[in-house]
Write the structure tokens for this entry.
Amino acid sequence: MTGRKLSAGTRLVVATHNKGKLAEFRDLMGPHGIELVSAGELGLPEPAEIGTLYAENAAIKARAATAATGLPAVADDSGLAIDALDGAPGLFTADWAGNPRDFAAAMARVDRELALRGVATAGARAHFVSALSLTWPDGEEAIFEGRVFGTLAWPPRGAQGFGYDPMFVPDGLALTFGEIGPEAKHGLPPHGQGLSHRARAFMRLAETVLPPLQNLAGKA
Ligand SMILES: O=c1nc[nH]c2c1ncn2[C@H]1C[C@H](O)[C@@H](COP(=O)(O)OP(=O)(O)OP(=O)(O)O)O1
Ligand SMILES: [Mg+2]
């Protein structure tokens, strides 16, 4: 594993065109003093996500951003795996929302596909996966993964978050990711141990490559 760290003040490209993800990256990384600029803001093209693993697709996105900018980059590739659908939509989670993205339609497709199999959507087991790839201009790379298990809600509930958040209830809570808001969805220490797939992957990345949290006044 790399011993390399990102230092405070480093410019890091967030290789995503998803505004919801970008907002989460700003929440997660901001307190570590990293300066973030997104691939969307830089007008970088979206590479084809042709990998067969989340980790491969994350690396494809991060490498493309580093190659285009000469800066270190981080990318997330993520998805929702539903047990009764044999892990679908999985790597195709974004594709189910079509182009332009329509997540109400994507969630309705989940409900339809489960109905075809005679499975109730409410209570169906599912999990989110996030793979984060970090790439440096000299070709060094690192990968971090996180997941969160839970059940589906139907109909969707809550207007916070993005994507399939309104239909996912993490184990241990009664509310959807769309209802609990970003802070609770991250569930970071000191109030939690990391809740969302992305926050859990981020915590692994942070402990490996980020400078420690800058102490806030009044907190030790
Ligand atoms: O926390 C989440 N809460 C709700 N839905 C989520 C989450 N995390 C991933 N998802 C869903 C929506 C997303 O569209 C797809 C991932 O697809 P994925 O290709 O990784 O992202 P994307 O195409 O939206 O943006 P980009 O590739 O530019 O980073 O899974
Ligand atoms: Mg994508």
